[in-house]
Design goal:
Helix content: 40-55%
Number of domains: 2
Radius of gyration: 21 Å
CATH topology of the largest domain: Rossmann fold
CATH class of the largest domain: Alpha Beta
Length: about 280
């Protein structure tokens, strides 16, 4: 990635994860600025990564050709309005990782005419195993899109969307997705305990099974359905368990769950982007 100064506006967990991924990939700590009202967070980032810090968003932003906005969605309008004069003057690449903030709303709050990339990383980015979707507005150049992609790839995989409305589907699938898997893991652990296993053993077997299944899927070109069929012997124990799950309409439940999450994502984006 072409070396450019990056200003992180917000120094929370996701910002820290991205900074760590960039520096692990060889990005210079001296090219990174971070702002946050929490002096303790800034101190921890300085100590861990040796980056520049500032409690003022404007101070950090003035050092960045790229602004990565990592503030809470409810704070984004206020933060963008404060940075608008600088944005109009310097025209940085603006990357937002705030859920539910549409690119058109963010561009408006920043004064208009800004190159915006909206990104939706998920929490496994904290361990550099994230899945991120990105959408760029019409003002973002191919070079700027490449910069944004490289930043998000520092913590996992990144895919591009041509239609921003699909961000709501991404939010439902991968944004909220880790919680679904945690719920399944929780249920398996509880079931193992009820079958007589100790809590520690049930937890360890659940975690390693989840990890192993994901690793096989990642390293295989076969579909999930194909992989499932390969480990489901006719007349065996796995087939009996799968039958119970299918009879319980597991697929329909997941479809309904994602539709509910998608609908809520659309609703929140409307609330956050309202002109009122």
């Amino acid at each position: 990635m072409t070396l450019q100064n990056i200003a992180f506006i917000g120094g929370g967990n996701m910002a820290g994860s991205l900074i760590g991924g960039l520096i692990a990939d060889g990005y210079a700590a001296d090219s990174v600025w971070v702002s946050d009202p929490d002096a303790e967070k800034l101190g921890a980032l300085r100590e861990r990564f040796f980056v520049h810090t500032a409690q003022s968003n404007q101070e950090a932003a003035q050092h960045g050709a790229v602004w990565l906005l990592a503030v809470k969605p409810q704070m984004m309008r206020q933060v963008a309005a404060e940075l608008a004069p600088q944005a109009l003057q310097t025209r940085p690449l603006v990357i937002s990782i705030a859920a539910g903030i549409r690119s058109a709303d963010l561009e408006r709050w920043l004064g208009g005419g800004q190159a915006i990339v909206r990104a939706m990383p998920n929490t496994p980015a904290l361990v550099r195993s994230g899945a991120s979707a990105l959408y760029a507005n019409a003002l973002a150049s191919e070079a700027q899109k490449s910069v944004a992609e490289n930043i998000l790839r520092a913590v996992g995989v990144a895919v591009w969307l041509k239609d921003e409305t699909l961000m709501d589907a991404v939010t439902a699938l991968s944004g909220s997705g880790p919680a679904y898997f945690f719920l399944v893991m929780e249920a398996l652990e509880e079931a193992g305990v009820k079958l007589g296993l100790t809590r520690d053993i049930a937890r360890l077997l659940t975690l390693e099974t989840a990890f192993g299944a994901a690793k096989i899927a990642l390293e295989s070109n076969e579909s999930s359905a194909g992989l499932r069929a390969r480990v489901t012997s006719t007349g065996g124990t796995t087939e009996q368990a799968i039958k119970v799950l299918e009879q319980g309409r597991l697929r329909e439940l997941f479809e309904a769950a994602l539709k509910a999450a998608q609908a809520r994502s659309v609703e929140l984006a409307g609330e956050l982007g309202s002109n009122t």
